[in-house]
Amino acid sequence: MKRKRTVIEAPGRGPGRPRDAKAHAAILGAAISLTREVGYDALAMDAIAARAGVGKATIYRYWSSKELLMAEAVEAIVRRVPLPDTGTTAGDLLVLMRATMTMYQDPATPPLLTGLIAAMARSPLIAERLRNGFIGVRRAAICEALRRGVRRGDLARGTDVELACDLLTGPMLWRSLMSGEVIHETYTVELVRRVLRAFAPPTPTPTAASRGRRT
Protein backbone atom coordinates (compact mmCIF):
# COMPACT_ATOMS: atom_id res chain seq x y z
CA MET A 1 0.00 0.00 0.00
CA LYS A 2 1.32 3.42 -0.92
CA ARG A 3 2.24 5.46 2.13
CA LYS A 4 0.66 8.87 2.56
CA ARG A 5 3.25 11.65 2.76
CA THR A 6 2.73 14.44 5.27
CA VAL A 7 3.93 17.96 4.51
CA ILE A 8 5.12 20.35 7.21
CA GLU A 9 4.33 23.90 6.11
CA ALA A 10 5.10 27.34 7.46
CA PRO A 11 2.16 29.58 8.44
CA GLY A 12 0.80 31.47 5.45
CA ARG A 13 0.87 35.22 5.04
CA GLY A 14 -2.26 37.21 5.58
CA PRO A 15 -4.11 38.98 2.76
CA GLY A 16 -2.26 41.93 1.28
CA ARG A 17 -1.97 44.11 -1.78
CA PRO A 18 -2.12 42.20 -5.11
CA ARG A 19 1.36 41.79 -6.56
CA ASP A 20 2.97 41.20 -9.91
CA ALA A 21 4.08 37.60 -9.39
CA LYS A 22 7.14 37.86 -11.64
CA ALA A 23 8.43 41.07 -10.06
CA HIS A 24 7.61 39.77 -6.59
CA ALA A 25 9.67 36.60 -7.10
CA ALA A 26 12.53 38.56 -8.68
CA ILE A 27 12.73 40.95 -5.73
CA LEU A 28 12.73 38.17 -3.14
CA GLY A 29 15.34 36.24 -5.10
CA ALA A 30 17.53 39.32 -5.44
CA ALA A 31 17.28 40.03 -1.72
CA ILE A 32 18.43 36.51 -0.82
CA SER A 33 21.25 36.38 -3.38
CA LEU A 34 22.60 39.76 -2.27
CA THR A 35 22.43 38.74 1.38
CA ARG A 36 24.65 35.80 0.47
CA GLU A 37 27.13 38.17 -1.15
CA VAL A 38 27.25 41.22 1.11
CA GLY A 39 25.38 40.32 4.31
CA TYR A 40 22.29 41.90 5.81
CA ASP A 41 23.87 45.11 7.09
CA ALA A 42 25.32 46.08 3.70
CA LEU A 43 22.16 45.13 1.82
CA ALA A 44 20.70 48.17 0.02
CA MET A 45 17.31 48.66 -1.62
CA ASP A 46 19.01 50.21 -4.66
CA ALA A 47 21.08 47.06 -5.17
CA ILE A 48 18.03 44.82 -4.75
CA ALA A 49 16.11 46.86 -7.33
CA ALA A 50 19.00 46.71 -9.80
CA ARG A 51 19.46 42.95 -9.35
CA ALA A 52 15.71 42.31 -9.71
CA GLY A 53 15.36 44.60 -12.73
CA VAL A 54 12.66 46.75 -11.14
CA GLY A 55 12.43 50.32 -9.92
CA LYS A 56 13.01 51.02 -6.24
CA ALA A 57 9.49 52.45 -6.09
CA THR A 58 8.15 48.99 -6.97
CA ILE A 59 9.85 47.54 -3.90
CA TYR A 60 8.51 50.26 -1.61
CA ARG A 61 5.04 49.74 -3.02
CA TYR A 62 5.01 46.34 -1.34
CA TRP A 63 7.50 46.66 1.53
CA SER A 64 8.02 49.83 3.53
CA SER A 65 11.42 48.74 4.87
CA LYS A 66 14.34 46.40 4.24
CA GLU A 67 13.36 44.54 7.40
CA LEU A 68 9.88 43.70 6.08
CA LEU A 69 11.27 42.70 2.68
CA MET A 70 13.87 40.37 4.20
CA ALA A 71 11.33 38.93 6.63
CA GLU A 72 9.24 37.74 3.69
CA ALA A 73 12.29 36.69 1.66
CA VAL A 74 13.63 34.37 4.35
CA GLU A 75 10.15 33.01 5.01
CA ALA A 76 9.92 32.03 1.34
CA ILE A 77 13.17 30.03 1.31
CA VAL A 78 11.63 26.91 2.82
CA ARG A 79 7.88 26.90 3.30
CA ARG A 80 7.20 23.18 2.87
CA VAL A 81 9.10 20.11 4.03
CA PRO A 82 7.66 16.71 3.04
CA LEU A 83 7.69 14.31 5.98
CA PRO A 84 8.88 10.94 4.63
CA ASP A 85 7.37 7.64 5.71
CA THR A 86 9.90 4.95 4.84
CA GLY A 87 8.50 2.53 7.40
CA THR A 88 11.35 3.01 9.89
CA THR A 89 12.47 5.90 12.05
CA ALA A 90 16.05 5.47 10.87
CA GLY A 91 14.93 5.71 7.24
CA ASP A 92 12.76 8.77 7.87
CA LEU A 93 15.52 10.62 9.71
CA LEU A 94 18.08 9.76 7.05
CA VAL A 95 15.86 11.27 4.35
CA LEU A 96 15.45 14.48 6.35
CA MET A 97 19.08 14.75 7.42
CA ARG A 98 20.38 14.02 3.91
CA ALA A 99 18.25 16.93 2.68
CA THR A 100 19.83 19.08 5.39
CA MET A 101 23.28 17.83 4.38
CA THR A 102 22.61 18.82 0.77
CA MET A 103 21.56 22.30 1.88
CA TYR A 104 24.75 22.79 3.89
CA GLN A 105 26.91 21.45 1.04
CA ASP A 106 25.74 24.35 -1.15
CA PRO A 107 28.61 26.89 -1.03
CA ALA A 108 26.06 29.70 -0.85
CA THR A 109 24.50 28.42 2.39
CA PRO A 110 27.13 29.44 5.00
CA PRO A 111 27.32 33.11 3.94
CA LEU A 112 23.54 33.28 3.66
CA LEU A 113 23.07 31.81 7.14
CA THR A 114 25.73 34.10 8.57
CA GLY A 115 23.90 37.12 7.18
CA LEU A 116 20.52 35.91 8.38
CA ILE A 117 21.75 35.10 11.88
CA ALA A 118 23.16 38.63 12.11
CA ALA A 119 19.80 39.95 10.90
CA MET A 120 18.00 37.95 13.59
CA ALA A 121 20.01 39.75 16.26
CA ARG A 122 18.97 43.13 14.84
CA SER A 123 15.38 42.44 13.87
CA PRO A 124 12.81 40.63 16.06
CA LEU A 125 10.55 40.37 13.00
CA ILE A 126 13.17 38.55 10.91
CA ALA A 127 13.99 36.34 13.90
CA GLU A 128 10.32 35.40 14.22
CA ARG A 129 9.95 34.67 10.50
CA LEU A 130 13.10 32.54 10.46
CA ARG A 131 12.07 30.54 13.53
CA ASN A 132 8.57 29.95 12.18
CA GLY A 133 9.61 29.41 8.56
CA PHE A 134 13.09 28.42 7.40
CA ILE A 135 14.12 26.97 10.77
CA GLY A 136 10.69 26.01 12.07
CA VAL A 137 9.45 23.83 9.21
CA ARG A 138 12.66 21.78 9.12
CA ARG A 139 12.67 21.35 12.87
CA ALA A 140 8.97 20.45 12.94
CA ALA A 141 9.51 17.70 10.35
CA ILE A 142 12.41 16.17 12.29
CA CYS A 143 10.52 16.37 15.59
CA GLU A 144 7.48 14.71 14.05
CA ALA A 145 9.65 11.89 12.68
CA LEU A 146 11.05 11.41 16.19
CA ARG A 147 7.58 11.42 17.79
CA ARG A 148 6.47 8.83 15.27
CA GLY A 149 9.54 6.81 16.24
CA VAL A 150 8.36 6.83 19.85
CA ARG A 151 4.90 5.65 18.76
CA ARG A 152 6.45 2.89 16.66
CA GLY A 153 8.58 1.73 19.56
CA ASP A 154 11.84 2.57 17.77
CA LEU A 155 12.61 5.16 20.45
CA ALA A 156 12.14 4.93 24.20
CA ARG A 157 8.94 6.13 25.80
CA GLY A 158 9.57 9.52 27.36
CA THR A 159 12.21 10.45 24.77
CA ASP A 160 12.98 14.17 24.92
CA VAL A 161 12.13 14.92 21.29
CA GLU A 162 13.39 18.51 21.40
CA LEU A 163 16.75 17.38 22.78
CA ALA A 164 17.03 14.61 20.19
CA CYS A 165 16.30 17.17 17.45
CA ASP A 166 19.00 19.47 18.84
CA LEU A 167 21.49 16.60 18.78
CA LEU A 168 20.68 15.90 15.13
CA THR A 169 20.71 19.45 13.81
CA GLY A 170 23.25 21.21 16.02
CA PRO A 171 26.39 19.39 14.84
CA MET A 172 25.64 20.16 11.19
CA LEU A 173 25.12 23.84 11.94
CA TRP A 174 28.37 23.88 13.92
CA ARG A 175 30.32 22.37 11.04
CA SER A 176 28.77 24.72 8.51
CA LEU A 177 29.28 27.98 10.39
CA MET A 178 32.08 27.36 12.90
CA SER A 179 34.53 24.54 12.22
CA GLY A 180 34.22 24.46 8.43
CA GLU A 181 34.51 20.66 8.43
CA VAL A 182 32.86 18.82 5.56
CA ILE A 183 29.34 17.46 6.10
CA HIS A 184 29.34 14.22 4.14
CA GLU A 185 27.27 11.06 3.84
CA THR A 186 29.25 9.00 6.35
CA TYR A 187 28.99 11.77 8.94
CA THR A 188 25.24 12.14 8.37
CA VAL A 189 24.55 8.40 8.67
CA GLU A 190 26.68 8.14 11.82
CA LEU A 191 24.93 11.15 13.36
CA VAL A 192 21.52 9.55 12.88
CA ARG A 193 22.78 6.18 14.13
CA ARG A 194 24.21 7.62 17.33
CA VAL A 195 21.12 9.66 18.17
CA LEU A 196 18.89 6.63 17.60
CA ARG A 197 21.12 4.53 19.82
CA ALA A 198 21.10 7.19 22.55
CA PHE A 199 17.29 7.18 22.69
CA ALA A 200 16.69 3.49 21.94
CA PRO A 201 14.21 1.57 24.10
CA PRO A 202 15.83 -0.29 27.01
CA THR A 203 16.74 -3.89 26.35
CA PRO A 204 14.43 -6.19 28.36
CA THR A 205 16.17 -7.79 31.34
CA PRO A 206 15.91 -11.59 31.28
CA THR A 207 13.75 -12.93 34.11
CA ALA A 208 14.81 -15.81 36.33
CA ALA A 209 12.27 -18.06 34.60
CA SER A 210 13.56 -17.23 31.13
CA ARG A 211 17.15 -17.80 32.26
CA GLY A 212 16.10 -21.17 33.63
CA ARG A 213 14.50 -22.20 30.35
CA ARG A 214 17.76 -21.53 28.52
CA THR A 215 19.80 -23.75 30.86
What are the main properties of this structure?
Tetracycline Repressor, domain 2, 2 domains, 2 strands
Detailed description of the structure:
It is a single chain. This protein is mainly alpha-helical and 215 residues long. It has two domains: 20-62, Homeodomain-like (Arc Repressor Mutant, subunit A, Orthogonal Bundle), CATH 1.10.10.60; 66-199, Tetracycline Repressor, domain 2 (Orthogonal Bundle). The protein is 67% helix and 4% strand. The protein has eleven helices and two strands, in the order βααααβααααααα. α1 crosses α2. The protein starts with 5 loop residues before the first strand and ends with a helix. The mean pLDDT is 85.
Number of strands: 2
Mean pLDDT value? 85
Class by SSE composition: mainly alpha
N- to C-terminal separation? 44 Å
Give the SSE string. Answer: EHHHHEHHHHHHH
CATH superfamily of the largest domain: Tetracycline Repressor, domain 2
Predict the CATH topology of the largest domain.
Tetracycline Repressor, domain 2
Which ranges are low-confidence, i.e. pLDDT below 50, for 5 or more consecutive residues? none
CATH class of the largest domain: Mainly Alpha
User: In order across it, which strands form the biggest sheet?
Assistant: 1-2
Q: Number of folding domains?
A: 2
Could you tell me the radius of gyration in angstroms? 22 Å
What is the makeup of the main sheet?
Answer: 2 strands, antiparallel
Overall helicity: 55-70%
Q: What is the CATH architecture annotation of the largest domain?
A: Orthogonal Bundle
- What count of helical segments does DSSP give? 11
